[in-house]
Amino acid sequence: MKLIRTVTALACAASILSACGGSSDDVGKELGVTPPEVHFIHAIPSAPNVDFYNNGHILQANLAYKAVTNFATINTGAQTFSYASVNTTTQLATDSTISNAAKGHEYTVIALPDAGFLPSIAVIDDPFDKGLLSTSARVRGFNASANAQNLDLYLVAPGASISTVSPTMAGVAYKNAVPATTQDSLYVSGGTYQLIATLPGSKTPVYKSASFDLGNNADWLVTTLPAGNALSQVIPNKIRLLVAQGGNTQTPAIELPDTQ
Questions:
Q1: How far apart are CA 127 and CA 104, in angstroms?
Q2: How far does CA 122 lie from the centroid of its chain?
Q3: Cα–Cα distance, 52 to 201 (Å, whole number)
Q4: Do 209 and 182 share a structural domain?
Q5: By the 8 A CB rule, do 84 and 40 touch?
Q6: In terms of C-beta density within 10 A (0-12 exposed, 13-18 middle, 19 or more buried), how is residue 98 classed?
């Protein structure tokens, strides 16, 4: 009987969420009953295509710069993530920090340039605590800019002044996320926005995007990268901004142009 009641509750919740524009997959994540999922982002400019590995096996193959894979189901328990150039088995970077992948969680693995443009890796654990009836967009910032190692990010209405407002994501340190890994994403209403980056505590932009639409139920990881495509082109605090969109369809990252 308990199993029947649980199944009935899931079916009812899925029906309600679907009517509000969400998905039954969101219901399972919120209730912590779906297997953990992972997707991969290739964020190394001018790098070759790579294969993404999970526990020593290729999970998603032949990924180009800006590729954002669809979510793939993984087992619970310890996870080792890595990537290698296509047609090789030499891992360029490896991460084994996830000791117990949890049901209902989303994991993001990012291939990014380290200082000197050497390959590096980062992993974000997202517990996905979105309310069943929420249609809000989810947003998180990540700093992959070795040339701008601490940034404040503002998500504001187009043309709005940031002189009297606090950063939406403050103190985004190099190779770190805000909100931090293991914390839930920020929730904002869908609408038209602009992203502005400054150095910590400053109100002078080092980056200012054009306006863009952030839809209800969107799931965005905003990632900063060095603006140049090679080490010789890197200028301190000069960045580009990629948006990786979560979901169960493969969508390349969007690069938001700097309007400055």
A1: 7
A2: 11
A3: 37
A4: yes
A5: no
A6: buried
- CA neighbor of 23 nearest in space, from 251, 247, 196, 257: 247
66 CA to centre of own chain: 12
Whether 16 and 140 share a structural domain: no
Indicate the number of domains in the chain: 2
Contacts of 225 (CB under 8 A, 6+ apart): 43, 45, 112, 113, 144, 145, 239, 240, 241, 242
Across 62-86, b (16+ Cβ under 10 Å) vs e yields ebebbbbbebbebeeeebebbbbee
Say how far apart CA 190 and CA 187 lie, in whole Å.
Answer: 9
pLDDT digits (tens, 9 = 90+) for 139-193: 999 999 989 999 999 999 999 999 999 999 999 999 999 999 999 999 999 999 9
* Residue 245, both tokens: 């969109």
Hey, which residues does 244 pair with through a beta bridge?
Answer: 221
| Residues, the chain | 260
pTM recorded for the entire structure: 0.86
Dig out the tokens for 131 from the structure.
């309310």
252 to 7, 102, 243: CA distances (angstroms): 35, 26, 9
With contact defined as beta carbons under 8 Å apart, do 228 and 238 qualify?
Answer: yes
Residues spanned by the domain of 144 = 35-256
